[in-house]
Design goal:
Residues 276-370, 473-563 form the Ig-like domain. Residues 1-21 form the signal peptide. This is Adhesion G protein-coupled receptor F5 isoform X4. This protein is an alpha+beta fold. Helices cover 29% and strands 32% of the residues. The chain has 26 helices and 67 strands. The strands form 15 sheets. It has an eight-stranded mixed sheet with strand order 11-12-10-13-21-20-16-17, covered by helices on one side. Strand 5 (99-115) and strand 6 form a beta hairpin. 39% of the residues are buried.
Length: 1348
Amino acid sequence: MKSPRRTTLCCMIIVIYFSQATPNLNLESIVHPLILREHELAGKEPLRQKRAVASSRVAAEEYTVDVEISFESASFLEPIKTYLNSLSFPIQGNSTDQATTTILSIEVTTVCRPTGNEIWCSCETGYRWPQERCLHNLTCQEHDGFPAGHRCSCLKGLPPKGPFCQLQGADVTLRMSVRLNVGFQQDLKNCSSALYRSYKTDLETAFWKGYSILPGFKLVTVTGFRPGSVVVTYEVKTTTPSPELMRKANDQVMRNLNQTYKMDYNSFQVVTSNETKFTIVPEIIFEGDTVTLMCETEVLSSNVSWHHVERHSDIQNNSRFSVYTFVLNNMTSISRLTIYNITQGDAGEYICKLTLDIFEYESRKKMDVTPIRILATEEMKVTCDNNPVSLNCCSEINVNWSTVEWKQQGKINIPGNPETDTDSGCSRYTLKADGRQCPSSLGGMRVTYVCEFISEHGARGSKSIEVTFTSVANLTITRDPISVSEGQNFSIKCISDVSNYDEVYWNTSAGIKIYPKFYTTKRYADGAESVLTVKTVTREWNGTYHCIFRYKNSYSVATKDVTVYPLPLEPNIMVDPLEATIPCKGSHHFKCCIEENEDYKVTFQMDSLSFLAEKEVNGKQVCYKYNFMASSVSWCPKKLNIFCHFTNAANNSVQSPSMKLNLVPGENIMCQDPIIGVGEPGKVIQKLCQFSSVPSSPGSPTGGIITYKCVGSQWKVKKNDCISAPINSLLQLAKALIKSPYQDAKLPTYLKDLSVSTGKVKHEVSSFPGSLGAIINILDLLSTVPTQVNSEMMTHVLSTVNTILSKPVLSTWKVVQQQQTNQSSQLLDSVERFSRALRPEDSTVLSINQTNVQMRSMVIKPGHPKAYKQSFVFSDSDLWGNVAIENCQLGNLQRDSSIVTVAFPTLKTILAQDVPGKNFANSLVMTTTVSHNITLPFSISMTFKNINPSGAVPRCVFWNFDLANHTGGWDSSGCYVNKVDEDSVSCVCDHLTSFSILMSPDSPYPGSLLEILLDIISYIGLCFSILSLAACLVVEAVVWKSVTKNRTSYMRHICIVNIAASLLVADSWFIVAAAIHNHYHPLNKTACVAATFFIHFFYLSVFFWMLTLGLMLFYRLVFILHDASKSIQKTIAFSLGYGCPLVISVITVGATQPQEVYTRKNACWLNWEDTKALLAFVIPALIIVVVNMTIMIVVISKILRPSIGDKPSKQEKSSLFQISKSIGVLTPLLGLTWGFGLATVFQGSNAVFHIIFTLLNAFQGLFILLFGCLWDQKVQEALLKKFSLSRWSSQHSKSTSLGSSTPVFSMSSPISRRFNNLFGKTGTYNVSTPETTSSSLENTSSAYSLLN
């Protein structure tokens, strides 16, 4: 470049050279008048080979040639550029036989212009100076402060040795598309179809020819077709071309493609993705941050859009999103998206898209938004003791937090000092609180401290810490020193001035907790107190005790020393003799023994006399003796009580059980024994077994009492309640255990020892009822101790039970039963208490199997529990049973509840019977318990093997511990027989306890022939009764005016109407009672009481209105001259008819319902088994029957032998005859009905009594209609007249003989003739008894037969 004023144009020419020989190009004709670069003509390769193109015949190679064109005048620049841009490519060059040259494209890369005294060379669009030129040459931008890191686009002077401006960027893949205005065919979706291959071949050929003019072009590939019309997608691999060059290439494509494809030139689109720099600040984004997303590209355009992929939406400016796009220094396009207060919903992939002409420059980046997670202890307890306490907060992700702030909220203000460690991302808040800041009146006050982490970009994350400030509890304990002797009591009161605590407990100086039943705790508004109370002190209570109030991890402790002086407990002092007979001149040795050797002062006391005892040591047993001389007493015979007193070092004393002494003359003494003593014939005395002739070991004496009787001249054993030495030792330990402060800790070991010892002494248990009773007492004592029992403890318990329920021991149980004790019920109760306390270690079903007892248990876990179904099989006893509780029932139980079922095959033979020889358990006894309260209604199903004797009826029963004065008995309340098969009985109960089936030979069970028969009779009769009573009331209403013309008739029909109405209401309540029995529901108990009350009341009303009818007859016949007014008679009648029944009913329910013994356990009727409340109905009813029968006798005598003046009017006489007939018929019928009713009360009654009673009871309404209403001649006449049957009525009224009476209502038998002759011509009034509706819930369908 010789002239500095010369303008230079540098071009890049892409040439394809086809040759079979070595290339030897002469470009002179092509570039003339161009000047080639110097270094390209001087021995170096003048051309830059770019790509070899495969050809079938010749080798096609592509070259890029840099050409420099210089002008003398700058005015030539633009015309030449215009000319070059107007050229159509490719241009065919010179051709020879061996080579062909084709120019694909010519691009202007560099333009040098004179500027002042300098030449500035700048790059055209899409080109940049190489980096090395920008470093070693002066740039034009030095004066403009061009940003560092950007390649320069303008240099001062053309580099003398090149290179010129080059294409910017590396190879890119352009994702392009173009539309063909032809119809879309489905074969274009199938890449293997002929149409697809044809389109692809033709299009790729055109694309190759068109895009090969692009600098750096390498490849073009059709990737697919999609509808609309036909959209062709393809990819071009090249360097980034300029828009002008891309348009030229697209023109070439259009020219090279067959016009049948109808390509739309305006539909070309280009997307490139590696031209944009995409950055996000900050790198770690928290919720609440202000986030900046920035796109930078060297493509100059302000047409930038942002898109959120997950939301499928373009981002527009609003309150949270801000988009700002600008061009920096006319070289870089920058678009900035700012998101304020970012949320997790803003996370996802973002697209920044810059559009320039047909080019779309796209860049994507995914952004994650992380919530700020602060780790801290959510709750803390701080004691106001002025000690520093630190609250700590740490961020889960450690970043450079801008700041950490601490705030507090609460009624009290306790500030602290914050410290933040930026390296660890933690902050500590240290505070101190003293008693003045949180006085005891505000003990337990909560303050919320909040630590808030703030990021550099505005995100905030906080965590709340609930701090409870409690003042130190000041405990005040009993000040007086505690010094007691064994057997006495003491209490320690521990008072706190703070009412807020989590736990209060007592323990010993060794750290062993005292069993909770020994202390009680109360909370008050301004404090609390706990009292440790020991009613019977043993030596184990000697020591130091700590009263501990705990709140969270703070403990307040007060201590107290307890000194216990040894002193034998009264039950542990063994005396001999218990009772002795001494001749007036004789003597006897008395002694008191204990199982310890302490220094006691022991005296014997008799009346006011006191004698020192002589000490004797025999192994572990220490006895104190005294030889009594009868001569020391001034008179004889005499009865004396002798005691021995033990006094310890604390001067406390205890008195032994009394020893009875009988001083008698010696003439009648027949029985003499050196051990038992002397006695008169028939004398009965008791001795402790260890002092009798029963063998015992010195180390472990025999326990219990043996009873002797003087028979002839010898002492005979009357009753032996001795306890074997091992069992007696365990009994004494059990008594000591329940008084021990560590009883729960000692219990597991003791149960194991009990199981082992009981197994070793099976023979003694089967031989001595006393040993059996002792084991039962031990289990009863121990069952009150545990709050929780594990599987090992339960195994030991059932092992012991298995031994005492074995078949060899059953004979001993019979002896126990004969003594009228409740030990079998006591055993069952003990097992149930252990079962309720059972807590298995795991969730699986626990199973324990012994010969005479089996147990199954299951723990209810949250979720959907499985149904509880357990089976028990005892092959030795040939018995089996199942128990089931549905999962819908288990879902109502508390979480972690334990269900335990224990089955006994032999217990049935030892539980008390209802009536000896009548009712007896004849199956397994299964007891099911739940550790927590159950929710009503509850249902349990059980199946028992049926070994039912012929004729017996199974009843489902449970063992009620409250019956028989709390000795227990079988009860059927809440249980019923669900199904009876040949080999099984299925029961359903609505509660949990010990279940069995009871064989009753008297009552019919559901499904039996007798039950069905009684059911049919009851309900058919009830329907007739209700219809008849309704008809009776209708008839009375129709004929009322015609039949109440005199006072006597009026009162008679008043009684009839009230009798019918009362019985109708009673029948209605019978239906209610039956419905209650048939549907089990918690409200049934209250409804059953109401039904029973109204049935009782209205039945009595029927009887008392019958009594009113009888008394009215008696009054009218006996007191003829006395005539009371109608109002007075009505007042007396209603008072007697309803007042007396009301008083009786109210008294009955008031006396029995508070104890819940008003109704039967299984029926809505008056109780018979427990309170005999049924007598409140039976006695008044039978008394009324007797009174009415007596009245009838008086009336008969008055009619047969009337006195002077006994002449009532004709109408009144007719009414009196009607009353007499009604009473004469209905009263015997009523008495007969309830005579059969009483017969069904007692067991052993024949089924015939049930049937007759049900028949008579069910049809009473029909009897009243027939004998009380329609049998009345006046009623008949009034009805006939009412319905215009006057002819028949007149003939009928003139008839005076029985034969002329209405055939329908006449009584033609000899008996009826006598009644007619006695009481008149027409039929008698019948008031039948209302027992029909007496309901028994033992069997609703057999209500009548089970009423009694």
